[in-house]
Design goal:
The chain is 44% helix and 19% strand. α1 packs parallel to α3 and α5 crosses α6. It has 285 residues and is α/β, with parallel strands linked by helices.
């Protein structure tokens, strides 16, 4: 019979071995594919790795490493499972209400409005924004960049096709966000799916982009990076926030998720424009 102390020691050794396997896997991913996930929040990343192993039927992380490094198609599926693809139409309606009534009036004078959805997942938030812009008469003057680390998520976002069963919840949040028409006017429904109209994405570019390793955009009027930073460790969060801050023109806006806050050096460069909605405005130069 293994003593309690011995059992605890064995568990600690196993945990250390798991951490070492994970570190080797993440290093190998950077070397082979260039995606750097090493700064993600460790606890969240471990949970997603375990889920990936269960869903793939692969018994160990070293085996997952070996197979995914040799098979780019497998790695693309692994990347999807390691990165979070969660989005909803008009999530946090009060945020979209503030966008409609407080932010967009200040951008209305701009001849061209540059918008970036960083970490767009499957695109629901992009289409929510496009609907608000269309209703405020601004969509034709906007250039929207919608990006995500996952190429599969970007493909889904570009299509703009979702399960019809979610339309009732979409509509309720749309009305709570200040919408006054039937959300169904923006979609075509068939075979249990709804497709958002092409007019909502005519000024949108969807493409794969790595917030950590790729160059960022400049002179953005409005950046959405909502519910992305919560999956990063502290150092990576500060790095990405700094890069986002550098990409916003003076007077532009940065939008974070409900459980996220602007911190570090970025605090001196922004004011709390809509504190409860986590909307920050860049200090004019």
């Amino acid at each position: 019979m293994v003593s309690w102390h011995r059992g605890r020691a064995l568990a600690t050794e196993a945990s250390q071995d798991d951490d070492a396997d994970l570190a080797r896997f993440l290093d190998a991913v950077v070397d082979r594919y260039g995606y750097d996930l090493r700064g993600y929040a460790p606890a969240s990343l471990r949970r997603r790795v375990q889920a990936t192993l269960r869903n793939s039927g692969i018994s160990s992380l070293p085996e997952l490493e070996r197979r995914s490094l040799a098979d780019p198609a497998l790695f693309a599926r692994v990347l999807d499972s390691l990165t979070v693809r969660v989005s909803e139409m008009f999530r946090d309606p009060s945020f979209f209400q503030a966008l409609r009534t407080r932010v967009l009036p200040l951008l209305r004078a701009q001849p061209r409005i540059n918008i970036w959805h960083a970490g767009c997942a499957t695109g629901e938030e992009v289409y929510s924004t496009a609907i608000v812009l269309a209703e405020e008469g601004l969509l034709d003057r906007c250039q929207i960049y919608a990006t995500d680390l996952s190429p599969h998520a970007v493909d889904d976002a570009r299509l703009g096709v979702y399960a019809a069963e979610g339309l009732a919840a979409f509509s309720a949040r749309y009305r709570a966000a200040g919408g006054t028409v039937d959300l169904a006017r923006y979609v075509t429904e068939a075979y249990g799916r709804v497709a958002f109209h092409e007019s909502l994405r005519r000024n949108a570019l969807f493409f794969q982009h790595d917030l950590v390793g790729d160059h960022l955009f400049e002179a953005m009027d409005l950046i959405f990076c909502r519910n992305v930073l919560i999956y990063f460790g502290r150092a990576l969060k500060e790095l990405v926030l700094t890069k986002l801050c550098d990409g916003i023109r003076p007077g532009g806006f940065l939008c974070l998720g409900q459980s996220e806050h602007l911190s570090g050096a970025g605090r001196a460069r922004f004011t709390d424009f809509a504190r409860n909605e986590r909307i920050y405005q860049a200090v004019p130069s």
